[in-house]
Amino acid sequence: MWDEDRISSLIASVSRGFPVGALMTLESGGNVEFKPRPVEGAPEQARAVLSPESLLLDGQQRMTSLYQVTLRDQVVHTVTPKHKKVKRWFYIDINKALDPDIDREEAIVGVPEDRIVRSNFGREVSLDLSTRELEIENLMYPMSMVFRWDDWMDAVFEWGEDRENFKELRTKVRQFKTEVLDNFANYQVPVIALGKSTSKEAVCVVFEKVNTGGKPLDAFELITAMYAVDGHELRRDWYGDEQSIGRQARLKEALRLPSEKSGVLSGVGNTDFLQVVSLFHTRDNRRKAAEEGKQGKDLPKVSANRQSLLSLPLESYLRYQELADDGFLRAAKFLIGLGIYRVYDLPYQSQIVPLAAILADLGNRIEITSVRDKVVQWYWNGVFGELYGSTTDTRIAKDFLEVPAWIDGGVEPSTVTDAAFRAERLKTMRMRLSAAYKGVNALLLRAGAKDFRTGQQFVHTVFFDENVDIHHIFPQDWCKAQGIDRTEFDSIINKTPLSARTNRIIGGSAPSAYLGKLESTDASDHAEAHAVDEALRSHLIDPALLRADDFAGFMRARQEELVLLIEEATGRSVFREFNAAEEDDAEDDTDENEAEMTIAS
Hints:
alpha+beta; four-stranded antiparallel beta sheet; three-stranded mixed beta sheet; 8% strand; globular; disordered C terminus
């Protein structure tokens, strides 16, 4: 359903004869059967029509809203813009609709189910339309009678043909009919009519090209309609109902701490789940074809693209759904083990699909250290190689085949061999939009980063209890005061995970100053200072450089430490590129061999 503001806006547009966009229909009787569903609110006998002439694909919300408001003669179930469920009757204020200086949307009025609008916390009645006579007196035309003008006019004559101002009123309402109501009767909508021979994939593609708003028609919507023919309710599997919790809610709750609204899997969508099922279905088809003697190009492809989803039979969905479930739950545990606790910190949502499929395929083998190490290495190469940021269907399928094969002694997967990361990239990573930016944060957490103030390691529970997030090491205000460019101090090199309270203590002070605040008030308390230094080192920070407020030295040293951390995680050498200007900035006593940094291939 649409919210009441959108319904009012739609009514206003039609009342002025303004376009509301095209509809798209699909002729019934093609090769693919879809189970039809009547427009919401249609009478029960509509459900008996098993073979309609055509199906409405695009425009369901618009047509449902107009049908319920104008033809059903029942209160409309809708929601407020704040998603509170309400019941509304809609009216057109005749005086406002005829005033050219008033926006037409202001003339569309939604009133409660009893047709009485109250104010002052319900103590005063500001508009009463509970009877036909009151509607006429207030010149409020009910939208439920848009196509029953004669009935309304009969009521007008009965109400007051003998009244003194009746002639004036009749003239006004007739003007209203001509200028406003007739637009509903004469309104025309362009329709894109797809023939019965249109393929499932073509339906999706065409819809994406013409749909400018509302709910996207994705593969899940079409598969839901196809499975419904065989009596299976795919939508209930995913969203649940009054009797059962859907898969979406279960995944969202997976390994969620009580202090959080959702877990790391809360971003998993219904098509993500179907992709994992499709990977197993198409792989088994390929294996069967190979057993039958087919080779090379004759073998069907392993795929998780839209076409493979639309070709996914119900039998295969039912066979692999529990396996896919298991894979996603294993993925949640795996990600938490990597220091990724929130969906907010997940480098790539798209990489969860192959991860879940691989883990489902491996089963309990993931508990073997050598197996887990390879999956971890593959995952970080995908993140730091930034390989899951664009079209991923092909890579998902390749990784699903190649990673298990690699674990069983085969060659390295293409995601590992394709990955390349340059040391200079660290300087340009400034926002969470970068998967590698989030990856660095997770690696620091996994490596045992401790809070500067408490010395606590950011394990799962501490992470949430202390409200940990990525914060600057050299504070922004201090950097600005020193004339340091934002492009330098905003990079991930100058950021690290810290608790909210520690970050407040740091404020905008120089590191040498805020470290003093974090330590004991007794300056001679070296044990406390030692503990702070230990915490700094857990973040790959040189305490001496930080205490000396040496920003340039700190940036060089930490960049190198982060490069080593990434190399350890990916098992790949990082390209190091330092220009001559940076070498000149090095300290005078730097050994010549250290100043001449070689490029590691």
